[in-house]
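Figure 2 data, in text form.
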Amino acid sequence: MPFIQLQNELDERATLGLLRSRRTLSSPQSPHIIVDGKPYLAFCSNDYLGLANHPQLIAALQQGAQQWGVGAGAAHLVNGHFDPHHQLEQQLAVFVGKPAALLFSTGYMANLGAVQALVGKGDTVFADKLNHASLNDAMLLSRAEVTRYRHGDVAQLEKQLAQTRSGRKLVITDAVFSMDGDIAPLRELLALCEQYDAWLYADDAHGFGVVGEQGRGSMAHFGIASERIVYMATLGKAAGVSGAFIAAEQVVIDTLVNHAHSYVYTTATPPALSVALSQSLQLIAQGDGLRMHLKKLIAQLRNGLSDLPWQLMPSDTAIQPLLVGDNQLALKLSESLRGRGIWVAAIRPPTVPQGTARLRITLSAAHSAADVDQLIGALHELAQES
């Protein structure tokens, strides 16, 4: 029976400390949640600005549903492209400083569609080894030749680019790496793309809304702009709602409209979501106070955990990974924190490389200094017990 084989594989994952399961929230997303009927202080959401349950976004979504209904009913290229979609795309393009933008249902679908549309057989993709799984899947789907470079290793990437003589060249990278929290050297990557006639595809899922002036993202953080940059950001993290977008030159967007399968062959997102996201974009632009508070929390956490036996990885972003190493120990620490009413996810292979299991601590502007102190105290207690 094939089911026996499946169960054996699941049992093996459990033995290795790699089995995953879901937990059910019975409260809105916030630092203080209820999971399986129990209250927790959570440090595992990507709701970096605390907008997921913001009253202005709730009101905007309600108004959008009242005016536009709850479903798009068709793909964008049939009759599912509404005024709110179009207006939001224009607003997003202006916000990140690109000529045009295109909405996608998720960041995963944006990456799959864009990479597959821009490169194919005879072309080459150059990818950071710690890129998100969606980028890895995208480059395989494209059927382009794939060359991976060591994490952040600009020198190795330059050698690879110099050795590639034909076809289109696409460098793809996370802008803020989702499991490490560090920021890609985008300025240096762009310089290489200009030197070797390549595109730079930047996945800013964890930077948009958080880094850069007014939260305009990683391009703004580095002060870079170029026709060569194809910029992707998600709208379900710092923006607090759902979806994703790609911003680029008009010819790139037109190419995606015609060739990105995950855009062409799927139903459009509900237009009410775009109404809420337009409001979210205003809150992001006005959110310097939120970002300043978040920055203070990051400094507080790093100072408070500097003397633990487990080390925080280098990161100035809201993603603060505590490197543990062993899978079972990471799970044990996560479970012990839950026993103290604190929710922090244990991240294990294959999401991260072997031997680098970690607690992925994520901070939000909705956290208080007291919340962070509670986490710091609990981790020091666990360190003394270990």
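Caption note: The chain has a mean pLDDT of 96.
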